[in-house]
Structures are given as C-alpha cells and as structure tokens.
Amino acid sequence: MAPRRLSPQSLRIQISSGELDPVYLLYGDDEVEKTSLAGAFSAAIEEDVRAFNVERMYGAESQTTIAGVLDSARTLPWLTSRRIILVLQAERLLAPKRESEAISRELEELEAYIRSPQPHAALVFIAGELDRRRRVVGLLMRHATVVECGGLEGAGDAARWIRGRVAEAGGRIDAGAVRLLAERSGHDIGRLRADLERVLTFVGGERPVTAADVEEVAGDPGLKDQWAIARAIEAGSAGAALRELALLLDAGAVPLQILGQLGWIVRTEPPKGRFPAEGVAAAVEALFRTDLALKTSAGDPRVLLERLIVDLCGAVKPAAGRRSTTPGRPA
Fold first, then answer.
1. Distance of CA 221 to CAs 151, 218, 224, 240, 276, Å?
2. With contact defined as beta carbons under 8 Å apart, do 189 and 157 qualify?
3. Given pLDDT bands bounded at 50, 70 and 90, which one contains residue 215?
4. pLDDT for the residue 104
5. How far are the Cα atoms of 39, 52, 217, 305, 327 from residue 246, in angstroms, in the given order?
6. pLDDT at 271
7. Residue 275 carries which DSSP code?
8. In 144-188, where does DSSP find H-type helix?
9. Residue 153 reports pLDDT greater than 60
10. Which among 24, 97, 242, 330 is placed 20 to 30 Å from 104, CA to CA?
11. Residues 6+ apart with CB under 8 A from 4
C-alpha cells in the first residue's frame, strides 16, 4: 500500500465519497480536529448498522490490546461493505511503556497487518505525539494514509487553514479578513476555529467575509488569560470551575473555544499538565460526547459544558500542595 498524505479537509472529502483506505494514521495536538474526524468516520456507516460495524477503542485502557484491535479489523462487516475501527490514544499501543515477549509478538503482528491490511476494514489510529524511532510508527508513516492534525506554525499556516475551512464551508473570505483572523488568534488553533465559526455564522454565506465582519464578531484580542477555569479543574473544584464557566459565557466566549481549552487540560502531560493519567480515558470520552452534542445542537451549550466540567472534576484527584502550570501562569 503506497503512502498518502492528506489534509484534514481532504480526508473529509474522501470520507464523504465512501472510498476509504484500509489504514489511517491521524496524529497531532489538535484534539478538536481529531475528534471531529473520528465522528466523520463513524458517520460514514449507515446509522441502522453503525453499532455493529464501528468500534471505538482507547489505547490508554488496560483492556485494549493490539490483538483485540486486529481481531476487530479481521471481523467481517455486517450488512454493509466496510467496518471502521477507531483506535484513540493510539500512541499508548504503538509505544507501550512495558516491553515483553508477548507485546513484541503483537507488534510484529500489527506490522504484518499494516503491510497487508484487510480490504473490508478501515483501521484508524488516532494519536498525539509519536515516537518515530519505533519501527511500527515508521511503517505507518510509509504504508498508511497519514493526516496531520497539528497546531499552526505561523501566519502563513494560519492563512492556509482559514482559506481551506472557508472553502470547505462553501464560503468566501477576503485577504484582510484572513490576516486579521490570523493575528487575533495568536496562531492558537482553538481560538482561530471558534472565531472563524462565529464569523461564518454571522455572514451566513451571503457574501465574502470582510475584515469589518471579523472586527464585529471575533473574540477580543485582549482576552489572552482565560485559564482560571483550567486551574479550578486541575484542583478538582467543580464549584469554582462552574463559576468561571459562567463568567466566560456571559462575556461572550464561544462554547467550542472553551471546549478546546478543556481538551488542552486533558491531553497535556506533566510537567505542563496536571490531569491524572487514570482519569484520561473517561475525560476523553466526555470531551468527545460534548463535542458531538455541541456540533449537532443536542442540548443547551451551557448545560453541556457544565456537565463536562463536573465529569472532569470528578476524574481529578488533586495532590496536596501542588501548583498549577497552566499556560500564562507561573509554575
């Protein structure tokens, strides 16, 4: 299988066409993008048979094994032409912390599968940072369809991202609006996504987005330090976190922007992050559930975010005397 590199936008087009490849590797630190693409893969299977043909696994869960992933990929689909297996937190499987003869054999089996995958399955590895020294990672890079879901590296990268998303939405945007959106975001992918969604909603596709539209509805560029909600969750203080959520929403913060910030809390490992490893799997599931609900209007955004915060705080076991290392705050 020849390697292929796709952008997230190109992957969405491919998924909507129904012509899926047998193995994918989605990696990078943009959790919202990866969650959205995972949802797109799931939606590619008809709803009536989705429960039988879409399987979601988490590499951080002890019951998830390479053998189990391969068994699922080799299972024939039911009443459809393809099964989809989503392996989230895949870096935990691709680079296990503990080595053993059994794990080595499983990795060899996975390598063999990558070289000769089943045509009836789409096996999707969704990962954060990858150890490219690992042989299995190198094989995925060479044989899988690879999609990087990373942050923005500069103004040019941000501008390309904006134009791609606007084109995907069927809209138009002028150069001044692109430049202003990129500047206001500070190249923060979460903030840029939220600002662009607000502007596109404001314009409604009736005309090109202008710099004046960005000035009218995009976030205040002076609001750089909004991490009080993160610190409250790190401390396991649901009451304080809910109060900070109310302040942000009342100030006009975009729910998806807040969701992106909460995703940062979960996915960032120590020393920068302070979310307990044992709570990550449940937290990721709660984030995915909330993201899907927000994007499908399956509830009031304030209520959905409040429930998410309660879930995240419940997964935190604060260590006595620890200090927050949230961005913008001294350690």
1. 19, 9, 7, 25, 32
2. no
3. confident
4. 94
5. 28, 40, 20, 10, 21
6. 60
7. -
8. 155-168, 175-185
9. yes
10. 24
11. 21, 145, 146
Residue with tokens 């940062």: 264
User: Where does the pLDDT of residue 2 fall: very low under 50, low under 70, confident under 90, or very high at 90 and above?
Assistant: low
Residues 28 and 84 in one domain: yes
With H, G, I as helix, E, B as strand and everything else as coil, classify residue 62.
Answer: coil
H-only helix segments in 54-204: 66-74, 91-94, 101-115, 135-143, 155-168, 175-185, 189-203
Contact of 62 with 317, CB cutoff 8 Å = no
Residues 206 and 119 reside in one and the same domain: no
The beta-carbon contacts of 219-226 under 8 Å, at least 24 apart in sequence, are 219/184, 219/191, 219/194, 219/195, 219/252, 219/253, 219/254, 219/257, 221/183, 221/184, 221/186, 223/251, 224/186, 224/328, 225/328, 225/329, 226/253, 226/261
CATH number of residue 17's parent domain: 3.40.50.300
- Joined together, the tokens standing for residue 275 give 């979310």
Output the pTM of the full model.
Answer: 0.64
What are 278's two structure tokens?
């044992």
Tokens of 139: 């094989």
pLDDT tens for each residue of 100-120: 999 999 999 999 999 999 999
CA distance 238 to 231: 11
> Do 234 and 211 reside in the same domain of the chain?
no
182 is written with which tokens? 């990129």
Chain position carrying tokens 């089943």: 118
Q: Do the beta carbons of residue 330 and residue 290 sit within 8 Å?
A: no
CATH number of the domain that residue 202 is part of = 1.10.8.60
pLDDT digits (tens, 9 = 90+) for 47-97: 999 999 999 999 988 899 999 999 999 999 999 999 999 999 999 999 998
